[in-house]
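>> received
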Amino acid sequence: MGRTYFVEEAIGQYLSDLSTKLKPYVTGLLIGQCSPQKDYVIRAVRTPPKEEQKEDNISPSNLASIDEEWITTHASQVSRMLPGGLLVLGVFIIATPELSKDSQNALRKLIFSVEKSLTKRRLWKPAEEEVSDRAALQICSATKKVVCRTYDVQDPKSSAKPADWKYQSALSASWLALDCTVNVNIHIPLLATSPNHDLEKNTKNGLNRWSKQIEDSVFLINGQVKDGDTELLEGQKKLRGNTQSSTQFSDVKVLTQLSQGSSHRSTATVQVCSASINLKGAVKCRAYIHNNKPKVKEAVQALKRDIINTLSDRCEILFEDLIINEGPHKKSFEREYHVLPQRLFVPVAGSSVMLSDYKFGDEAAGEIQERFVEMLDQSVQAEDIHIAEEINT
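>> returned
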């Protein structure tokens, strides 16, 4: 029995519009959530055209011209804009009948390269029982026939398995949200032996250690410690008959362990350091979870990953920004302050789920709006951009 994908109804219209506009083929990403029983697809996003295609208005003519690197870069950028609980669930291709027989091979290649690129950036390890199937959706632009298959990305030799693709209205209109603010104070020593203060690498190592602390933390949901296998909504009143997008928020507190218990032997090492990095501030974290009897452990796992992702993504964005503005060779050993970008949230029409992004203090709303159009093919009103954090983080 293959997997079943429940898909937001509006995606059907979106894919249909793409198939009439873009010939002979168009690729893109599927965004949603995996759960043990079924998967949910709440967004489909076409691959943005490259500059030269925009200018000359040309479409590539055969599948050999699919730019794998461009599509994996797009997937990495999009994954930064997804709050906890959401991920790139697969890849789609809409192609003319002549190209359809090669489409499946192209999709298989894309699924594995996208997953490889996303895994490389993650600071958390997937859980044992985690769903590792990713969707390959193929649509014929002439007949509109939809074929959905899955590949197991943990197995490089995996072959295609059939999957069901079912549209549903108001799929994510009343998903549950978990919110928390995490105070961060991470001290990362830079070893004197570390070659020319490789800041990015050292920061990643420091974040790696911190992420293990987050993994081991205790999460209080609405003031209570709950058993992982209980239902998240147990004992809460259900919202009745309301399909308007309405979010039930749970307030979460994160308790990190101050010191290891006596059962852990601590071995201290002394290392000569010549400098250090300090990451300080309060970060807003959020995860969304489907409303089909979700378990506490699913929700907590989604929130843990958001906490870890939001900090590592910001550091990545900051280093990219520094390289663009200062060049990679700037070596200055005085005390320097850099403000990490702030987090913001933007609503999705017909859904209770919000997408996320980051802005530097001097970035205008117009730049954020452009990014949403380019990366997520979504136009955003300036008044819908909710900045979640104070500037002093």
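>> Helices lie at 9-21, 51-56, 68-80, 100-121, 199-215, 296-326, 365-376.
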